[in-house]
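Exercise 7b. Backbone tokens:
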């Protein structure tokens, strides 16, 4: 797998994105389960103005999903400084700097949109960050991921109790932590909250980290530019009221970001699954 990634990484990013768009179309055609979930989740969002608009977003998302797969070798295996040159614009860095200046650490939330790996890589070139990640089942892929995601000032923390402790320690050191907030947590680690009008099991970890550290929260997202030109990354402060449901506020904030570039969100992710052992959402929905 490392050899394959290294071979693909030699190709220019525009070529990888072109091939990725073809891969996305092929995957959609041959994988009925994948295609069904993608269509269901995208339609669930309910913001397409018409059927033709929905189809336009659907077909664009099919291409973008394939690009997301084939751009990883370029982002992960190119020399670190060279991979960062793909970032053409960075908007809102002052918000991240202002949050850092508070001296309590920073919780950076990045949805599954665009090339989300490039965001932490860019931050790690300037500031220390510990990123929460779910180790893959394949040992070879885990080793590749570890190597790719520990460049610059980046560390990884697995999605277990030890990983949570790593995040808390990083915040105590006044450093940054990175979390994918739309990842489905395990049983007992989340609560049901509406996401595009449907109950989704949503992590409570972010609220616990805020309560333990007093760290501010910043939302960061990536935008894949057309024709393989690279990426734009964006940062914006996120104010969460601890008196209200953090998961509900979090999902509302994610919806607002996703609406900016819906064709680049990972709609094929099983966001509405019920973790093993978790209770079903209440019959009346979630708050």
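Sequence design result:
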């Amino acid at each position: 797998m490392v050899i394959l990634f290294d071979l693909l990484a030699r190709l220019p990013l525009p070529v990888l994105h072109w091939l990725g768009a073809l891969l996305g179309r092929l995957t959609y055609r041959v994988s009925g389960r994948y295609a069904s979930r993608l269509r269901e989740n995208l339609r669930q969002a309910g913001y397409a103005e018409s059927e033709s608009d929905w189809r336009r977003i659907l077909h664009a998302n099919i291409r973008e999903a394939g690009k997301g797969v084939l751009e990883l070798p370029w982002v992960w295996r190119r020399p670190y400084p060279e991979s960062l040159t793909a970032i053409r614009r960075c908007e809102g860095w002052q918000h991240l700097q202002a949050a850092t200046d508070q001296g309590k650490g920073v919780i950076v939330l990045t949805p599954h949109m665009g090339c989300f790996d490039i965001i932490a890589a860019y931050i790690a070139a300037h500031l220390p960050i510990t990123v929460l990640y779910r180790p893959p089942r394949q040992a070879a892929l885990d080793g590749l991921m570890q190597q790719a995601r520990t460049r610059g000032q980046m560390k990884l923390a697995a999605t277990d109790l030890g990983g949570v402790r790593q995040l808390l320690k990083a915040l105590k050191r006044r450093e940054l932590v990175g979390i994918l907030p739309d990842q489905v947590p395990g049983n007992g680690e989340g609560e049901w909250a509406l996401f595009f009008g449907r109950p989704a099991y949503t992590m409570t970890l972010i609220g616990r980290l805020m309560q333990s550290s007093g760290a501010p929260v910043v939302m960061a997202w990536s935008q894949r530019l057309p024709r393989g030109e690279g990426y734009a990354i964006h940062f914006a402060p996120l104010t969460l009221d601890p008196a209200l449901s953090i998961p509900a506020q979090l999902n509302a904030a994610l919806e607002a970001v996703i609406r900016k570039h819906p064709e680049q969100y990972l709609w094929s992710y099983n966001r509405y699954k019920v973790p093993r052992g978790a209770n079903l959402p209440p019959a009346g929905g979630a708050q």
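Instructor comment: The longest strand covers residues 217-224. The chain has a mean pLDDT of 93.
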